[in-house]
């Protein structure tokens, strides 16, 4: 089968199209014919190994010292069940499914083999493979964090880095909860953010969200680049700061007391569960959230897709088709 293999750590040019062995499912696994995947910021980080210096040693040991141990990247997919192991009962051949691979990776290939109890669900009716592939990673991350905030109707929510795969779902989920949503990102993404429900938008290059003195019930920093004190001080006294992609410094600062009030600071890593995908299915079927696709590239042009994502211009999701 065809696969884009990450031959070493480095720029997108380290990705090479190769013929590799087609995986064979074990008794509790399914084999998926991948029809679409995406390029996430996480894929680019693993490929380039752009992590904080303090994490280099443990992450090299985990991912591989000289090159990724799992050299076919790709964290989310949509496709059809090609075959299923005899020991699993959740799926049948021909089922249209989508899901997240987590750290097993492997979606940049014609076929993908995963345990049947992974974060996989049948696709909603009427959704294309390309649309479905954009939902798992961004959707489950947005759902994980916003559930912790327990957003109420009428609350003010600020989403920093709203124009990516997580942020675009977060905007829609917050609106579904009845919040007034302010989305922060670059100028090129603001019209798209308004089109999916944002009430207000801020171009971070031209305006500091803290300068207006506006206070928010919930701030969700998807990008993980907002200064800690400035962000915390933009919360209401009982506000909640969701750190979706925290730096080491931010993780440390969350342990320190804030100046006033009873603000809550939440950081962590999202758990990927099939039941969360099924919940997102319902929202998709009801039209309460919709996929946001910027561009699509064939698998053979994965290098170009990685370059585009790293440019910072991506609006929503970049899809890879097989």
From TrEMBL:
Segments forming domain Enoyl reductase (ER): 10-320
Signal peptide location: none
A matching Pfam family: ADH_N
InterPro entries: ADH-like_N (IPR013154), ER (IPR020843), GroES-like_sf (IPR011032), Lipid_raft_assoc_Zn_ADH (IPR052585), NAD(P)-bd_dom_sf (IPR036291)
Protein name: NAD(P)-dependent alcohol dehydrogenase
Organism from which the protein derives: Planococcus shixiaomingii
């Amino acid at each position: 089968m065809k696969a884009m293999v990450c031959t070493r750590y480095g720029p997108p040019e380290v990705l090479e199209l190769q013929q590799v062995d087609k995986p064979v499912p074990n008794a509790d696994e399914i084999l998926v014919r991948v029809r679409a995947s995406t390029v996430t910021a996480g894929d680019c980080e693993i490929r380039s190994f752009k992590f904080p210096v303090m994490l280099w040693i443990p992450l090299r040991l985990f991912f591989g010292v000289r090159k990724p141990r799992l050299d076919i990247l790709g964290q989310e997919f949509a496709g059809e069940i090609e075959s299923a192991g005899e020991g699993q009962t959740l799926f049948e051949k021909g089922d249209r499914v989508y899901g997240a691979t987590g750290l097993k990776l492997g979606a940049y290939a014609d076929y993908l083999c995963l345990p049947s109890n992974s974060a996989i669900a049948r696709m909603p009716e009427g959704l294309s493979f390309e649309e479905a592939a954009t939902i798992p990673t961004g959707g489950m991350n947005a759902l994980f964090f916003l559930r912790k905030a327990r957003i109420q109707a009428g609350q003010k929510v600020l989403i920093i880095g709203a124009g990516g795969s997580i942020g675009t779902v977060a905007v829609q989920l917050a609106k579904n909860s009845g919040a007034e949503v302010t989305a922060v990102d670059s100028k090129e993404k603001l019209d798209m953010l308004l089109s999916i429900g944002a009430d207000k938008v801020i171009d971070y290059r031209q305006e500091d969200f803290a300068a207006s003195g506006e206070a928010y019930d919930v701030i969700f920093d998807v990008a993980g680049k907002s200064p800690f004190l400035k962000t915390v001080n933009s919360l209401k006294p009982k506000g909640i700061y969701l750190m979706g992609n925290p730096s080491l410094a931010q993780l440390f600062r969350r342990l320190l007391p804030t100046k006033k009030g009873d603000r809550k600071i939440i950081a962590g890593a999202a758990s990927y569960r099939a039941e969360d995908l099924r919940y997102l299915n319902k929202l998709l079927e009801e039209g309460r959230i919709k996929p946001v696709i910027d561009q699509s590239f064939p698998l053979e042009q994965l290098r170009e897709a990685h370059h585009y994502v790293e440019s910072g211009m991506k609006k929503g999701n970049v899809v890879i088709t097989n």
